Amino acid sequence: MIQPAVIAAVAAVIGGVVAVSVRDSRLVALGLLLALVASPLASSPEPAALAICFRSIGALLATYLLWASARSQSIASEGSGVGAVAELAAVCAAFAVGWFVVPVKPLAGPVAAQAAGIALIALALVPLAGRDVLRVGTGAAVLTVGISLLLQAWVGPATSAQQIAMTVLLVGMVGATSLLISPIPLPSSRPVPAGPSAGDDVESDSDDLPAPPAATPARTVSKPTPAGPLHDAESRVGAVGAPPDPQVSPNQRFAPGSPRVRRLHPRDPRQ
Predict the structure, then answer these.
(1) Is the bond into 45 cis (omega within 30 degrees of 0)?
(2) I want to staple 99 with a disulfide (CB 3.0 to 4.6 A). Which of 31, 49, 115, 116 is the partner?
(3) Considering the entire predicted model, what is its pTM?
(4) Do residues 255 and 234 make contact, with C-beta atoms less than 8 angstroms apart?
């Protein structure tokens, strides 16, 4: 009969593989949730009910933070760097090594916890070497879960205080990852054309750009010009190409309609 610790260890490994290998952020959050919830159940004897409830609530909170951040900012993981088949083969090999090779004798916990811990640690090495914030944060969480499984197998089942401390560490790690995720700029539905350069022909689209308003002819206002020989001479002097009148000097110009002033000389009293 298969023990519950073995089933929990295999479920934790499957959750880690899904969290590290897939591209969809929702599947990443679900795989991480499965690994966080199943990892404390891989120990023998099982932890107390209060510790399991606290660990499950912490896993739900961490998953919700990652889900909300990735969904609101349109984030997608890069997926597996070596391919899903190669990732699965490496995990199976690491699990087999942890199952048959026992460096600590006697083991304080089940051998399935050791195998799952070694498989999760080997699975988290590739994401930690990348540059994607989502993959690095997920890999760090998977690495922490793998180390906790190794401690359960080598040292013994964790106490309630240790389970609470591990839960706080995982929630803080995933929360920091959700804050560090940078949004991907969404492509605009319609590109903005660049401004026309000098010498280029510009085609105006009637649907996009309004047609320029038609130029209205300037209105000319004619002013009445006073008649007279002085004004005629002045107009001839100011005209372009017209010969100046020798009888009218330039200093004797008067504005149209300006009053004329006569100078009066004092009369000689002897006359």
Answers:
(1) yes
(2) 115
(3) 0.63
(4) no
